[in-house]
Amino acid sequence: MALDKNKAGIMAAIQAATEGKAPLKKPQPKQAEPDVAARAHRSLPRGTVGSVRAGLGGIQEIETALILPWGPVDRLELTAVNSDGEEVQDLAESIRNSGQQVPVLLRPAPSQDGKFEVVYGRRRILACQELGVPVNALIRTLDDGAALMAKGLENAARVDLSFYERARFAKAILDQGYSRDEAMQALSISKNSLSQFERIARLVPDAIGVAIGAAPGSGRPKWMALAAALESEKLTSDGCLSVLAKLPVDATSDERLQILLQSLSQRGADDARPVERSPITGAAVKTTKSSVTLTVRRSGRTKEFADWIDANIDRLLKESYETFKKEAGG
Questions:
Q1: pTM confidence score
Q2: pLDDT attached to residue 227
Q3: What does the alpha-carbon distance between residue 161 and residue 28 come to, in Å, rounded to a whole number?
Q4: Residue 131: strand, helix, or coil
Q5: Which residues does residue 59 pair with via DSSP β-bridges, in sequence order?
Q6: What pLDDT, on a 0 to 100 scale, did the predictor assign at position 277?
Q7: Domain 162-273 adopts which CATH fold?
Q8: What angle do CA 142, 147, 153 make, to 5 degrees?
Q9: Distance between CA 160 and CA 167 in Å, rounded?
Q10: What average pLDDT does this structure show over 109-114?
């Protein structure tokens, strides 16, 4: 399978990138400078040579304007889901002070001469774009399957995608036509885990996910609880959005999810609270989630009525039940 053939090479590139080192290459005989540039870019599409400055060991500097998005979205900071602007700013400041320590992975854009598609490293690209500097990048010729595997393996190497981001990534992979096997390989997960991710992505509307955020500190139990509440209609999309809209703007995504689940508990407590009404003086009907109770006081003005109810309750219930069946069509 193409993914299996490329996996070892991709992992070597990812490991090198994670460690901030270039992959080892066989020594090449010295040549004149123009030949070195030509050799460094021989595999790249026509028109790309002038846009790339070759670095040591295959790491090259690429202008951010030449980089295009590609593939299933793994992170949520490029949508409204995650307010990670501060994180990108922090990363930009780090690059300003210490340089870009870990290269991104790009592939030549198949349909646009001189452009590249990002396989992974979008936040680093955003930070470099903010600074107005080129991006340190590894460039590899990868088909869609190998690029997907590289993205998934790099995510697994960093282990900093949240549970919800991984669920959204799995959905994005499947939505783009990849098979379940390819999704499981890219995310390094089991069939059961993929099913859980699919359930989360299916039952939690994107609008709610956007309003909550990535929730990096919240794992499977909380997201599954939210999905179950939405499926059973204990919570509605509008209700969730209403709760979230009232939260302080500085509430973290984990706090937003927790408060939403607490609102579910509060609603459950409200549902369990008995409702009592008094259709006539001295009589009360109490309704709870589990029963309906009629009480008539055997004292004062209702004593005789209570005695009459006691003597006729069986007949009244039977007649009422027959009326109920007729009205219900059964």
A1: 0.51
A2: 93
A3: 39
A4: helix
A5: 138
A6: 83
A7: Arc Repressor Mutant, subunit A (1.10.10)
A8: 130
A9: 13
A10: 83
The full set of domain ranges for the chain reads 1-161, 162-273, 275-328
Measured between alpha carbons, how far is 219 from 193 in angstroms, rounded to an integer? 12
Unique residue bearing structure tokens 């009404």: 277
For range 185-192, the mean pLDDT: 82
Burial 37-71 (b: 16+ CB within 10 A, else e): beebbeebbeebeebbebeeebbbbbbbebbeebb
Residue 103: its pLDDT value, please? 87
Do 88 and 125 form a contact (C-beta atoms < 8 A)? no
Place of tokens 């669920």: 167
Residue 159 tokens read as 């282990």
- Residue 306: both structure tokens together: 């209570």
Fill in the DSSP letter of residue 57: G
Q: Show Cβ contacts of residue 4 under 8 Å, excluding neighbours closer than 6 positions.
A: none
Q: Is 172 exposed, middle or buried (0-12, 13-18, 19+ CB in 10 A)?
A: middle
Rounded CA-CA distance 88/96 in Å is 12
Which class in CATH covers the domain with range 1-161?
A: alpha beta
Q: Among residues 204, 139, 149, 129, which one has the least CA distance to residue 171?
A: 204
Angle formed at CA 141 by CA 136 and CA 147, multiple of 5 degrees: 85
